[in-house]
Amino acid sequence: MTDETSPVAESVVEAGDEKIVRTEPRKRPRLLRRLLIVAALGVAMVVAAGFALVMERQITLNGNIERVPGAFPEEAGRPAKTVGEAQNWLLIGSDKRPGEAGNQRADTIMIVHIPADRARLTLIGIPRDSYVRIPGHGNNKINAAYAFGGPQLLIRTVENLTKVRIDHFAALDFKGFVTMTEAIGGVDVYVAKKVYDPANKVTWPQGTVHLEGEKALLFVRQRYNLPEGDFDRIRRQQAFIGAMGRKIISRDLLTDPLKLNDFLEALTRAVSVDDGVTLSTLRDLALGLRDIRPDKVDSATIPNLGSVTVRGASVVRLDKRAGEKFFTAIRDDKLEEYFGSSGGLNDLTILP
């Protein structure tokens, strides 16, 4: 795998009562934001697709999933549960599993809202550089909460910010991503215009491109020479994720026991969840979402005012007024109505 220089939190600069994680370049493999949609679909598929296997295989796959003890903060002060049977999962993507030695970094932070009627999913991205109050650490980028205090502090920070109760936590170890894409035989995406990646010396031709393994990583992680920069990168990620989601729930995968088993093995070995997630939890979730199609998975980002510089660090300033309306819609399980009244989703559309 090709390494690239990417900004990571390496030091903390104190300024008054505020601490800001200063980002410095460090060589390391970096996978992408918003790949957590794969985990969102995939965790549900663990059991849903597992029904095609024997019960013993389900138990083995379930045993592959690492449980994270003590993921939630103390009950006092936590938000009330979302109305009805709706659920909110906090998903993060990181280059380390929870509890592994070394500084943990949440490269992707996402709330997955599952409505009571289980008719669709909404994946709500929280920019990793969002400037928020972290309990006990002042104002900082939200991904610093994971570095400072693991899942528990991150969940507390997200709940304080949104007043939305998090029901479950899941983390995707990006190191398993290559194996996952290889297990399903890769996916095809359409490239609208020929693009050269100077960092990896790769040219992406116009037209349909087959992506698998490390080639898929190069495509979705390209950072340079894209006309609209990070927005184009997000579009690429969403195009790839949409294609992968369709492949995951396709008849070709579900009716091929060997391919299905390889994918579920790769997925379950890359996912960690809170210790309240049981085989029954996954089975109920899978049954509830069994009719979900890729076009029923919505993508949004919490309202923000764009990037600003605070104490020499680039951060994302959140829109408090718009955010309150958005978070209220989550708490009341009325996101579909919210999007309808606000003119649609506030994120980029998945490409065909």
TrEMBL record:
Q: Which family does it belong to?
A: Belongs to the LytR/CpsA/Psr (LCP) family.
Ranges for domain Cell envelope-related transcriptional attenuator come to 105-248
Query: Which Gene3D superfamilies does this one have?
Result: LCP protein
Q: Which organism is it from?
A: Sphaerisporangium rubeum
Q: Name one Pfam family in it.
A: LytR_cpsA_psr
Q: What is this protein called?
A: LCP family protein required for cell wall assembly
TM ranges are: 35-55
Q: What keywords sit in the KW lines?
A: Membrane, Transmembrane, Transmembrane helix
